[in-house]
Amino acid sequence: SAVISQKPSRDICQRGTSLTIQCQVDSQVTMMFWYRQQPGQSLTLIATANQGSEATYESGFVIDKFPISRPNLTFSTLTVSNMSPEDSSIYLCSVGVGQYTGELFFGEGSRLTVL
Amino acid sequence: GENVEQHPSTLSVQEGDSAVIKCTYSDSASNYFPWYKQELGKGPQLIIDIRSNVGEKKDQRIAVTLNKTAKHFSLHITETQPEDSAVYFCAALLQEAGTALIFGKGTTLSVSS
Hints:
- The structure holds 2 protein chains of 2 kinds.
- Chain A has strands spanning 4-7, 10-13, 19-25, 31-37, 44-49, 56-57, 68-69, 75-80, 89-96, 105-106, 110-114.
- Chain A is mainly β.
- Chain A is globular and about 40 Å long.
- In chain A, a hairpin with a 5-residue loop joins strand 7 (68-69) and strand 8 (75-80).
- In chain A, strands 2, 4, 5, 6, 9, 10 and 11 form a 7-stranded mixed beta sheet that branches. A 4-stranded antiparallel beta sheet of chain A has the order 1-3-8-7, with no helix packed on it.
- Chain B starts with a strand and ends with a strand.
- Chain A binds chain B through residues 4, 31, 33, 35, 41-45, 48, 92, 94, 100-109, and chain B through 32, 34, 36, 41-46, 49, 89, 93, 95, 98-106.
């Protein structure tokens, strides 16, 4: 397993601003993913964070809106840019360890409210 | 791509009863099917999973069954307790693809004492 720490745990932001969420893992991991969970909804994959290269984004998500960095095997950031109220969600970092076979571990999430 | 349907969206049971949540998937090549439990204000936690080479897996009060032909899998919780109350998500994955899980829409389980 892995222990995943996300910062901030929650924040209230103003429309038009940007916020960077950090994900720190206690061990080197193979895979890192970012998910969004809108209020009362399921988890939607935003992108795969690739170590040392550009993230791989899912349909409907673009780099200009959700830039992602992953400088090493234990850390990643997700920025939510030019926020609007529709971006109010929980953003979750998840990781796969070892020889990745699908098992994902999740952080506690970062709850963003955009006013 | 993969699509996962989950039913029911809400489920209310009495303590001690059994609860069953069902999911169907679209990609016949998918071969990994986990279930996650999410309590209020927390991240999802893996509670049980099954791979396509088996039909059933049990862990104490929790079991998962898989029907590859019909492309559906189910979560069974027996002797439910109030602490089982949470949102449960099923997911599916083609593990060789090295991709992330695709989740169902979730089931809110309420266990009343």
